[in-house]
């Protein structure tokens, strides 16, 4: 198919199209693909910010935009060439979700399609986007979404761009009154949060606004985190405030007797391990990380050795379902279990399109096995923190309840006194904590503190 030479393709929009292709075809993560693509195209400053919003915003709003495009195209979207559909989604986001003039959004998208696909495909894109530009986002949602009175969850699935099953699962966790606010918060790009690792850096060294709940965090107004000296040196890092609070809650929980052996059972990629190791060093304790996958184990070693200082004892590449520790041997254990990630959709927007109810069932089985194994390793008088970056009840309350029922030597403790600055965070189990993006501007982290009685 011929690709005639025409007007120069805008490099920012070409870069955004590459990001969408990598996310769709290679299972890439938007936030991980973006830096490489920006570097390849030599885009910085305002151009880089434009690409970031264009690509990430398009991924977030994919369900909404697909519903709009389906109303403007006379054949199923699955029959539209993938490169053309990606470009149409980018154009639709510019028209409905960004302050890009309609003529610029349409013409640059048409140029992109002509250059990447064909002249005829460019004409098709022009016709479709002109139809899209006839209404604003609110009017299109009224047109293509189910009535909220007849099908409230179906309406929200289109209006806030989440799969229907995810809307149903989140509704059970947060309640109907807050569901719309939670889904809307998932579509707000999070600001970058940094953490100063204690004993290695201070919060005063970091630019930005102090976080409200973590004494070690700041939120950046903009700029490249890697340009901050403490980050470049590994003494500080990028870490959501919710993840910081997970590490702080475990470190604050009292233990009886010895407090020397700390374990992070699912340590990759190493953010929480780094903070825990720094906290351990201040007490003369040491943290060991356990990570199944080789590349993630290397990330843990790199992050925690620079950020945790003397408090990092190393990383063991092993399967945490058969942890390489004796019974009742660890004083403190963090189990940040593999989960659906449905509490981190602000940062990982593509996760909503990749996860399935089948994934949930498999992960729940793994979470139960991991938590039971963590309970075996925990010594009486020690502290075990179970955490997920998902608020879905099957991964939180139901996992903990099932393991407690099978293991009477474990009991649930109250983690809330160890996060006294965090308001309105009662979790689904007595004494547990649930953070929310719409309440706390963090990922939706779940925390439960367990003890071993014998």
Automatic annotation (TrEMBL):
It is an enzyme of class 2 (transferase). The active site is at residue 389. InterPro entries: MeTrfase_RsmB-F_NOP2_cat, MeTrfase_RsmB-F_NOP2_dom, NusB-like_sf, NusB_RsmB_TIM44, RCMT, SAM-dependent_MTases_sf. S-adenosyl-L-methionine binds at residues 266-272, 291, 319, 336. Its EC number is 2.1.1.-. It holds the Pfam family Methyltr_RsmB-F. SUPFAM superfamilies: NusB-like, S-adenosyl-L-methionine-dependent methyltransferases. GO terms for molecular function: methyltransferase activity. One of its GO terms (biological process) is methylation. Residues 155-453 form the SAM-dependent MTase RsmB/NOP-type domain. Keywords: Methyltransferase, RNA-binding, S-adenosyl-L-methionine, Transferase. Belongs to the class I-like SAM-binding methyltransferase superfamily. RsmB/NOP family. This is RsmB/NOP family class I SAM-dependent RNA methyltransferase.
